Known about the structure:
The structure is a single chain. By secondary structure, this protein is of the alpha/beta class. The chain has a single domain (2-196), classed as Rossmann fold, CATH 3.40.50. The protein has helices at residues 14-26, 46-50, 68-76, 104-117, 166-196, and strands at residues 2-8, 32-38, 54-62, 65-66, 90-97, 121-122, 150-153. Strands 1, 2, 3, 4, 5, 6 and 7 form a seven-stranded mixed β-sheet that branches. A hairpin with a 2-residue loop joins strand 3 and strand 4. The longest helix is centred in the last third of the chain and has 31 residues, at 166-196. It is globular, with a radius of gyration of 16 Å. The mean pLDDT is 96. The site of flavin mononucleotide (FMN) has 19 residues, from helix 1, strand 3 and strand 5. Flavin mononucleotide (FMN) is lined by residues 10-15, 60-64, 96-99, 102-103, 154, 156.
Amino acid sequence: MSKVVVVYHSGYGHTRVLAEAVARGVETRPDSTALLLSVEQVALHWQQMHGADAIIFGSPTYMGCVSAQFKHFMEATSAFYLAKPWRNKLAAGFTNSGNQCGDKFNTLVQMVTFAAQHSMIWVGLDLLPGNNTRVATAQDLNRLGGSLGAMAQSNLDEGSDTAPPEADRRTAMHLGERVATLAAQMSPIQTHLSSQSG
Ligand SMILES: Cc1cc2nc3c(=O)[nH]c(=O)nc-3n(C[C@H](O)[C@H](O)[C@H](O)COP(=O)(O)O)c2cc1C
């Protein structure tokens, strides 16, 4: 049984839709559970995060980086930076922005750096880019062509009922499923690693 926490911020609901898709992806594996936490809730759930096999981070891209609320969460984890309770856990990330590019690659890079600071093991998306040939379409998985994590785009004049589009929700689901699959496969190794670390 692997436990995966999905921790996210969403100002207007679009990134929450993705977080829910990631959690659904995790739970497509019968041996995996997903705990969906908004950054406003994490203070009550640190122990569940410390006990998880994997943590997946999600933030909208605001001004080319993670949102202030997500950064607040990142900084709150400095309280246990030295103790390293997340060492060797799997980590992954997703982001959503208003523009096709929107500088959201930088948001994922911030998450990778954050995960490395906690000695986590980053899991990329493992999907070929879609939507990049004459026969490809915007309905393709990974239509925005990310590798570090799941990227999504929500038109600025659409609510979270329709944006981000289905292709991005399925891409987010894929990320959740991939992390859960790897977490299950790595479970014996993780147990070994935790018995080795002081
Ligand atoms: C303060 C702020 C800054 C934003 N900065 C960017 C940006 O740098 N790039 C971009 O493409 N969209 C940007 N957007 C648009 C959001 O990324 C987009 O509306 C997204 O869907 C919001 O997700 P949420 O509903 O989960 O908050 C910004 C929105 C806000 C409110």
